[in-house]
Amino acid sequence: MTDTNKPALSEYEILKRTFDAIEDPIFYMAPDNTILHANMASATLLNIPLEEIIGKRCYQLVHHTPANIRGCPFILAKKTKKRESYTINLGEHWYQVSVDPIIGDNEEFIGAVHILRNIDSIKKIHELRAILGAIIETTPDPIIGETPDGHVISWNKGAEETLGYTAEEMIGESIQRIIPEELRQQHLETLKKIQRGERVDQIETRRIKKEGGEIELSLSLSPILDERGITTGIAVIMRDLTEIRKAERALLAYITEAALRLKNPIEIIAHSLEEITDLHMSGDIDDEELNTSIMIQVRHAEKVIENIRELQQSIVLNLDEIPQSYRKFLMDEE
Amino acid sequence: MDVIEAEESGIYLYISDPARLKQTNLEIVTSLTRKEYACIIVTTNIPSSLLTKLYTKNNIPMDRIHFIDAITKYSLGKVPGDQPNTTFTSNPGNLTELSIAISEALKRRNGDTALIFDSISTLLIYLSSPNISKFIHFITNKIRLLDIRAVYLSAEKGLDPLLLTQISSIVDEVVEQHEK
């Protein structure tokens, strides 16, 4: 009977092939930093044949230095007899280097296993996170992270400035704290939508500031989904509508003032000119009286233009959010 | 009841279609002079020379009329020399001068007198609503003390809602006239 389970290769060969099959570069090093063993991934990483690696010192091949670099994890591990690790950039890639000391029966350091793990994807994620974090922190708009049930997990500077609460005061708190009582039920219904994975875009609502007053805001809520599509958090982006409302009120005031200072006076001027013409044509007034009456209406018209100019300028001076080109136009500047 | 039908003194705000303002002025002045009232006409739109012609044509006795013309001098830079019953002020926006002219004319009144202000809406071309409101309050107090009649004329939609409310609250009656 043949033992079909009996390996065709020796245990050493199996371990050697396993060693070479691992994608991460691995070195086995003697106490003096000489590389005794290295797998195929090491040769690929260093771009030299495996036999040229063996017998060399790690710093010669990796760092191209005559001695160990400062903070070398091998030296540290030799001292601490514990795993030491650090991050290194080799060529265009980032590696997490860990050195595991091998301790002999008498607790002496007899060598180390040196493993380099490619962390490009992790590094990219960290970089992206750092960029996104910086964007979130520096944007003037409030951006809030919440748990699916509406507890605050992040609170940016924009939120601090707009709503008055610091991140320390809000993280861990229910978002209901800043929602006016009459809007809380509506918010709970919005939360249910988000929990189902739906987005809620630009709803106009109100929130309570720390000082006690209310602020008008536009809110966009997006679910943060895990790989299974389950909502694990909520990203809330707010936009302060105070300036927009201020501009709307200014616009209403402008329309009203423009009606009073432009439409109605022009109506009076038009009717007056019509009457003057009729009176002149019927012979009730002579040429001189016609001229006098027309001059009066010209004066009215000039004053109307002056009023509109003053109105434009007062609106422009009281509003900051006007594009420069429009500001110049409204201020009658060259 | 309007100023024409009223038996007693009172202050009225007439709101008229812009096309009817001149006609309203003529009707009120004709009616009051028939009742032997002397009329002080403050004009900020129609020159007093033209009003004189219109009144004469409508058989209004000119010896009962005194004009305070706030627009002719401002528009022409000079005043006509042949209008004895007229006080010219230099600028419709100069309320101090206008107030003095009205006060002087009221001092000189003889018998039943009415003040007709034509018009608040034209004055709005030259002054802000708050200033006009203060001025109307001042004139109204004076008229109340003297127990005479007064009519403020305004074009329809010629006053902003706040000014209209303020003036409506201090006059005895608001009369709205629309084009027929």
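qc> Chain A touches chain B through 28 residues (CB under 8 Å).
qc> done
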